[in-house]
Amino acid sequence: MSDTTAERSESVQPSPDLDVAMAAAVKASPLLAATAPAERAVWLRAIADALDADADTLVPLAMSESHLPEQRLTGELVRTTFQLRLFAELLERGAYLEAAVDHADPTWGMGPRPDLRRVLRPLGVAAVYAASNFPFAFSVPGGDTAAAIAAGCPVVVKAHPAHPELSRAVASHIEGALRASGAPDGTFALVEGLQTGRDLVLHPDLTVATFTGSLRGGRALFDLAASRPTPIPFYGELGSVNPVFVTASAAAARAEEIATGFAGSMTLGVGQFCTKPGVLLVPRGAGIEPLVVDAVRASSGGVMLDDKIRDGFFSGLGTLADRSDVELLAGDPTSADVPTPTLYATDAAALLAHPHELLEEHFGPAALLVRYDSPDEAVAIANALEGQLTATVQSEEGDADAAALVSVLADKAGRVLWNGWPTGVTVSYAQQHGGPYPATTAPHFTSVGTASIARFLRPVAYQGVPDAVLPPSLQDANPWGIPRTVDGALLVE
């Protein structure tokens, strides 16, 4: 999602606070697991209230460290506190626990059935690796932190070096809000440093980790997580080019609208969104290409998050500029300071011959336009794609060519869009922000939306356990008042 070259400037010394934070988190873990969901909802709302109350300080601090504009950061903070409160509502409803009760049944069809009760319970201590490009929503107070605390997992956040002062300020608010609302000590901690990030994923008391960032950085941590004596789940969001397929019917009906929409989405946030459309596939000779070029040329560039990310962007463009099967249509890839929106072009044959090289993600305001000659060729390109966070089809109702594309793209991406643009990932119940590798390391989970809580939970079945020993979610009296499936029927208290 974001380039992590800024990690190189971090101290290689481990944080002396890591062992302290982990020890406190381990102590807090059983306390959080035993806490009623409604109590954790109070904690999340307290965090949201604390962040909102200090917006006038936090937003300027974020501006000073990220180069992002005030309006963008103000909206991002609103998103951040909204998702904290949305998780609070989820907890109060209780359905996320997926509690199921099967009473003993001597007449069960396959033979006598014992009393079985199943529920989701917290995994334990969670690590969250913050991202650079969303200083609030995917950083210290972001969706991963909210989901983990909601699930009942203590959280240790590894701060991103791109905004250290903001990370510390936000962490102070989180700690204060948790303390004031009665959460156990050790529910949350912040650590910093490159070596600390490596030590964290290898810590024997860690049970789950999440990451949003570059393919290289995320894969390194993923491999460390898998190399442990006891491997742990590692949910990494790593990279995506988010292809957009334009059918002939859409090019004929809405060429200018599509060109303008693409340029706006591609350059939004200086192209530093994980869902930035990085590849636009258009029918050759349909007349849309010059409109796209004009729209990209008319778009504005901007200052990137930091100098290292900017340098990485220009370095990456060099891999396209040096290719004989790629041409520059718009932009100046040699600009020294402020990147200009840049558009390269190639054809379907070149892309199918070299998909790995031509479909490399470029974190910044750049994209590749690909000309294809037939609907079958477009489908062939879709089949050649690696895993994506999103894939978009720009088409018209009744277009028979679009159905095949949508079908293939559903196998390749976590979210398939029709006549929309992938930037702007709403936080909701039905959202899916994930996808097959290399978009993420776990395609069956999402990092945005209420379903993201599932990453921090695991199912446990209790067989023949006395009622007094069962967790409240499975006791006959249902003291938490949550929806449950009882003997196959959904019962809502």
Note down, in words, how this protein is organized.
The structure is a single chain. The chain has 493 residues and is an alpha/beta fold. It folds into two domains: 5-238 and 442-474, Aldehyde Dehydrogenase, Chain A, domain 1 (3-Layer(aba) Sandwich); 244-418, Aldehyde Dehydrogenase, Chain A, domain 2 (3-Layer(aba) Sandwich), CATH 3.40.309.10. The protein is 40% helix and 17% strand. It has 15 helices and 17 strands. The strands form three sheets. A seven-stranded mixed β-sheet has the order 10-11-12-9-8-13-14, sandwiched between helices. Helix 5 links the parallel strand 3 (126-129) and strand 4. Helix 2 (37-53) packs antiparallel against helix 4 (70-93), helix 3 (55-66) packs antiparallel against helix 6 and helix 4 packs parallel to helix 5. The chain is globular and about 70 Å long. The protein starts with 17 loop residues before the first helix and ends with a strand.
Question: CATH superfamily membership of the largest domain, which one?
Answer: Aldehyde Dehydrogenase, Chain A, domain 1
CATH topology of the largest domain: Aldehyde Dehydrogenase, Chain A, domain 1
Classification by helices and strands: alpha/beta
Structure annotation, total helices: 15
From the spread of the alpha carbons, the general shape counts as globular
- When the domains are counted, the total is 2
| Major β-sheet profile | 7 strands, mixed
| Beta-strand residue fraction | 15-25%
Q: What is the percent of helical residues?
A: 25-40%
Counted beta strands: 17
Q: Unreliable segments (pLDDT under 50, ≥5 consecutive)?
A: 2-9
N/C terminus separation: 41 Å
- Adjacency order of strands in the biggest sheet: 10-11-12-9-8-13-14
Q: In the CATH hierarchy, what is the architecture of the largest domain at level 2?
A: 3-Layer(aba) Sandwich
